Amino acid sequence: MELSIILPTYNENENVKKIIPKISQILKDEGITGEILVIDDDSVDGTAYVAQSLANEYPVKVHVRKNERGLATAVIKGFELAKGNICLVMDADLSHPIEKIPEMINPIIHGQCDITVGSRYISGGGCKNWSLRRKIISRSSGFLARGLAKLSDPTGGFMAVRKDILEGIKLDPIGWKIVLEVVVKTNSRLQEIPIVFSDRQFGTSKLDSKVKKEYLLHLWRLYGYKYPHIIQFIKFCLVGLSGLLVDTSVLVSLVELLSFDPRFAALFAFFIAVSWNYNLNRIWPLQTGPKEKAYAGYISFALRCSIGFGVRIGIMHFLMEYAQMGKSPWYIFSSLLGIFAGSFFNFMVSKYVSFFKSILKTRK
Prior knowledge:
Layout: E1 3-9, H1 13-30, E2 34-40, H2 47-53, E3 60-64, H3 71-81, E4 86-89, H4 101-109, E5 115-119, E6 126-127, H5 132-144, E7 159-162, H6 178-186, E8 190-194, E9 196-197, H7 209-226, H8 228-258, H9 262-283, H10 294-322, H11 330-363
Parallel strand pairs: 1-2, 1-4, 2-3, 5-8, 6-9
Antiparallel strand pairs: 4-7, 5-7
C-alpha cells in the first residue's frame, strides 16, 4: 500500500462526513492506493460510528481509544496501525487543503525528501479569515521553535513522512504538536509545501490555554533532546542559584535575628543549602541514569561540597579579621565571595580527579 492518511478525531462527526469522501475522491483521481485511518478519542458525538458507517463505500478504518486522549498520541497510534509506505497526517476539521495531498507525497515518492510539512508562511501559503491575535500567536509559536528545525510553520500540523524513518525512534510528545516531534527526532530530509489554511466549519477549536502550556513544555523537552548540554547547564545554574539564595537567607537570619557569628552561621547555612540542592537534584536531575540510594548519595554529595566550604570559611575569616568585613552588610559580601571561590575550587578538584582517573585507565 502506498499511503496511509491519519485523521485524529474528537467530536468531529459533521466533519468526517465531508472529509472522508473528499479524500477518497482525491485518491481515486490521482490513482493513489491508500487507506484512511480515523483514530478517535472515544468521541461523545458518535464520530467513530459515523466514520465506520462509511467503511463500506470508502477505504476507512476506525480505531477508538478508550482511555487516552490527545492529538499527538493519536497520530502515533496511527503510525503503528498504518499499512502504507507513507503516512500523511492532517486535521479532520477540513482546515488542511485536501487537494494538496498529491503534492505532499510526491517529493517523498521521488526520493527528494523524507518528510514534507505544509506551510502557511512560504510563497503560495496563507490563512483564511484569521484575526491579528491568532496570527501573532502562530508566528510567535514558530519563532520559539526556530532553534529546533528549519521550519517556517512548525505548528500547522499537516505532514507526510516516509514510514520507515520512524522505526526505532521514540516519539513522546506533549500535547498536540507531532510535526516538531517527528522532524526533530528523525533529523531527516525536509521539504515545505505551501498550503492555505481554513478555519473549521463545524465543531469547536481545541486551542486553549492548556494547549499553549503543553506546547511550551514540549518545546523545553525538545530543546533538551537536541541540546542536552545547554539544558544541563541551565539546570545547573538554576539549582545553584536557588541554593545560593537559601544559603544566604539562612546566614542573614541567624546573624541578624539570633546574633550568630557569621562564620558559625555559615556552617548551618551550608548544610541547609546542601540538603536543598541535593534534594532538588534528585527531583530535577542534571543527568539521566540510576540514582544512588538517598542516604549514601547525600553523604557523598555533602563531602564533596565540604571541600569548597573549607575554602569559603577561610576567605570569610580572612576578610572579617583583616579587612574588617565582619559587620553588616559586609559579612554577606565575604560569604558570597567565599561561596564563589569554594565552588570554583570544587570544580577544579573534580576536573583534575577526573583527568587523572582517565590517565590511569589508559595506562592499565
